[in-house]
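Q: What would this chain look like folded?
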Amino acid sequence: MQALQRFEELVERLMEGSFARLFRSPIQPAEIAKRLEREMEAHPTISVGRTYVPNHYEVSLNPEDFAEFEPFRHSLEHNMAEFISELAAERGYSLVSRPRVTLKENGGTPRRGIDVDARLSDEPALAALPAAGDDTSRVAPREPEIARTHAMPQIPRSRPQPGPAMRPAAAPPAAYLQPLEGDIAGRDFQLNKALLSIGRGLDNDLVIDDPRVSRHHAQITFRHSHYLLRDQRSTNGTFVNGQRVQRAGLKSGDRLGVGHVDLIITHADLS
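A: My prediction, written as structure tokens:
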């Protein structure tokens, strides 16, 4: 069954009886669902092997429209979150955590208007949304958060004074990382910056969706005409050609191991 059809049937059951007498808003729940669908499709995040879509949605309504939804707002939010989950599954998208939909009133939203703010967050929701008919005073247990692995803090250094001996830093050669597993095996990821971060967190340059990969797992930097791999105190380690390393220089053909994913670095100038 399609997600939108299932959502409409759930809302119809929700509005039976006393709710039907209260519901007078000119905005239909299906209209909000379609706006959520549009925002989900408009903000994809491409990762290694997956495409993520927003999991947090904030729906703003005019106070008069919002008042009509207030008697069953929590149940409607729950059903909308389930709609997002089913829709993402139908279309092959991934979610970093259970979706969360919040309805709120906003005097800046015109009557019959629907404003949606969608964002992707890898932080777990503070509480699970109550199911239809549940006591909303009860809060579900907080989801356990996976410990972050942070990069080591850099020690501030004095800024060198400009002089005739100083020269602009050499631009990094356009090397490539080529994953050997997953849906994007064989696809090239270009190293076109002086620092590239690798990890499971969505703030990395190269995101690897693997539970054995730390949120901030490793970095590749370009210094003194060479690429250097640094492990960022990851839980399961970083490997070069099968050897666990804290730091290592890279040359063309080296095999990098991050979690269950192996990548080959290639560039003629790195041999």
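The CA atoms of residues 252 and 266 lie 4 Å apart.
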